[in-house]
Input
Amino acid sequence: MKTPAENSAFDLAPFRARRERLLARMAALGGGIAVLPTAPEYARNRDTHYPFRFDSYFHYLSGFGEPEAVVVLVADDNPRSILFCRAKDDEREIWDGYRFGPDAARERFGFDEAWTIGDFDGRFADLLANRPTLWCGLGYDADWDARLMRALNTVRANTRAGAVPPHSIRDVRAELDEMRLIKDESELAVMRRAGAISGDAHRRAMAATRPGRFEYEIEAELLHAFRRAGSQSPAYPSIVASGANACVLHYIGNGCRLADGELLLIDAGCELDGYASDITRSFPVNGRFSAAQRDVYQLVLAAQSAAKDAIFPGANWNEPHDAAVRVLAGGLIDLKLLAGSLDAVIEQGLYRRFYMHRTGHWLGRDVHDAGEYKRDGEWRTLEPGMVLTVEPGCYIRAAEDVPEAFWNIGVRIEDDAVVSAGGCEFITDTAPRSVEEIEAVMRDAQERDPHIGEAAVREGRNAAA
Ligand code: GLY
Ligand code: MN
Ligand code: MN
Output
């Protein structure tokens, strides 16, 4: 059997450094014991499970990808990190594959101790006694909450033997959220690669798009590009939305046929080694923007550029959004889709008819990543190493007071930005962005393979959804 060790180069240093940082932070706040489980496995139907995805906090501290595992950190005079994981099991490994087991896991992932998960409840209750604080996450998983309470009650049952349960419970995720917000070099390297893979996938999707094909066929091109580059899965369900579907913000049916003259909006990004990328592109199904499509596209692009210029260390979180809204509102007035002064359109929120979401979010292990957006009631200040998306859009539904040329134009342009010393850097530039580049990519593809998609038209295939 091949082991994961043979398949990948693994650097445990960043994971150990994060555990040490959290231990130091706990010590500074009076010490105690932290406990973080990985995610549960969920049944899909009968004896089949959804693909397992580790918990983001757990993996951030451990790098360990197997199910049924827990990290425990003890902040006292002898600070240490402990992993609980599945035991070696020859029979199960024949069916399901390699398991590290505690000994190999301790060595490879750099823990001070490792034990089997079957020992967790007893050992954890012993470790919990006489600690001032339990650092954990509560309210996310009822089974886990109950397990922690049982451990606390085990300590309480031993008070006559001198055991004292923790007097306080603190949210360990709040500490980790702050750490996760600033990405270290190892994280940025993975995120850059994820961004490049996803950008390439969007380019492939553009090249494969033709009138008559189906949204799911284009989704398949994205998946192909993600997996062949080593990504483990999409970071979130891919949105492949043509025509009016592009105005449904979370459309994931992906079952409709692409029609000549429509736009196609794709919001898709891969997950690589636990990190998300998140890209949206909007482009004409036939490869040529109509005048109205081009007008709206250029407007959203200008809004994105204004938002990007507002991202630099010291700017506050909301400034890119305000900058994008200002450009969009002005453009919607120029296109006669809104009436009134710029200030009135902004202050009265009239632009929200066409732009109803915010301009970005933190990005990292989760597509909507950990980290607060406000501190003490104020938008937080951007710092180098933060990663955020920049994703203005404009969604125009069919309506009597809108010229028909604009009906069903849904445009979003989304890139992933790393805040750097001088401003910010987009890490998703492999996805074509300008009108000229998109049209060139699609023209080249049409010339190279003029017949792609004709089979679906010939076969008269029906929508899948
Ligand atoms: N794909 C999710 C988002 O753009 O926020
Ligand atoms: Mn996003
Ligand atoms: Mn997105």
Summary: The mean pLDDT is 96. Residues 142 and 148 are 10 Å apart (CA to CA).
